[in-house]
Amino acid sequence: MTDEGAPKTRSHGRISIAASATPRDLIADTARVRGAWTARIITLFPDAFPGTLGLSLTGKALAEGLWALETIDLRTFGIGRHRNVDDNPAGGGAGMVLRADVVGAALAQAAIGTPPDRARWPVLYLSPRGKPFTQDMARSLARAEGATLLCGRFEGVDQRVLDHFEVEEVSIGDFVLTGGEIAAQVLIDAAVRLIPRVLGNQASTEEESFSHGLLEHPHYTRPTVWEGRDIPELLQSGHHAKIADWRRTMAERLTKERRPDLWRAFCEQHKTDPDEDREL
């Protein structure tokens, strides 16, 4: 809680962030496009949003109402005078665990007005033990009507509330962060950029890394010569078919060298031997 005379914090100068049990629309003065994809974030730090999501193309799309961002302050559901949200882990051990009753109340609030079908509205918990986040998952998120993202803190969340609300755990990598806010922004960014009209050229999403199971080919632009290094001559030839072949070859080579796991999956999908001596 803050003193009455204390200055109010602001999110990119748009609205005041204050404790509230109801979702707070971070672009409250902007009309949403009907059916706009919506992210609801349960967090102890609503000031962390929109963060980088309020910049560049995602920020422009947010301001235009192409998607919406709402935060739910977990602290408002805390217990007692001090709004406690965590307690000691059962069985002992270091750290604290977010309480089931506190998180459950927040998830119940977040569910208001959303479809119960998890395909239409996923409910996700950002966790290092979760399923690895992929481009396919980003596409699934973008096709949904929206998503609720639970940002963890401390040692984690009481398992009972995750089971009760059928929350899916998702990880952005094999490492540990202090909380789920940054990871939530990663998921939202990956999904929002796939929403029609968010990117100026939607075709660019069809050619980037992971779109066809391969890493993306190298890119070049002006100047033609830089620090004694030339742009590959073929890319300046204007022969589009040969350029496409070169890009495909480079994508395969980079994937085989840098991501053997992706390469094996790609070869399995195309029924080829990942260990064969291919001319790349």
Overview of this structure, please?
- This protein is of the alpha/beta class.
- It has helices at 56-63, 100-111, 135-143, 159-164, 181-192, 240-258, 260-269, and strands at 10-11, 15-16, 24-25, 37-43, 67-73, 86-87, 97-98, 123-132, 146-151, 168-171, 225-226, 229-230.
- Strand 11 (225-226) and strand 12 (229-230) form a beta hairpin.
- Helix 3 packs across helix 5 (181-192).
- The longest helix has 19 residues, at 240-258.
- It is globular and about 70 Å long.
- The model is unreliable at 1-19 (pLDDT under 50).
Structure characteristics:
disordered N terminus, six-stranded mixed β-sheet, 2 domains, 12 strands, 280 residues, globular, two-stranded antiparallel ribbon, Trp Operon Repressor, Chain A, Alpha/beta knot, alpha/beta
CATH class of the largest domain: Alpha Beta
The tally of helices reads 7
Largest sheet: 6 strands, mixed
CATH evolutionary superfamily of the largest domain: SPOUT methyltransferase, trefoil knot domain
> What fraction of the residues are assigned to beta strands by DSSP?
15-25%
| CATH fold naming of the largest domain | Alpha/beta knot
Number of strands: 12
Low-confidence stretches: 1-19
CATH architecture of the largest domain: 3-Layer(aba) Sandwich
Estimated structural class = alpha/beta
Order of helices and strands: EEEEHEEEHEHEHEHEEHH
Helix content: 25-40%
Q: Biggest sheet: strands side by side, in what order?
A: 3-5-4-9-8-10
How many separate domains make up the residues? 2
Straight-line distance between termini = 62 Å
Shape: globular
Radius of gyration: 23 Å
The whole-number mean of residue pLDDT values reads 89
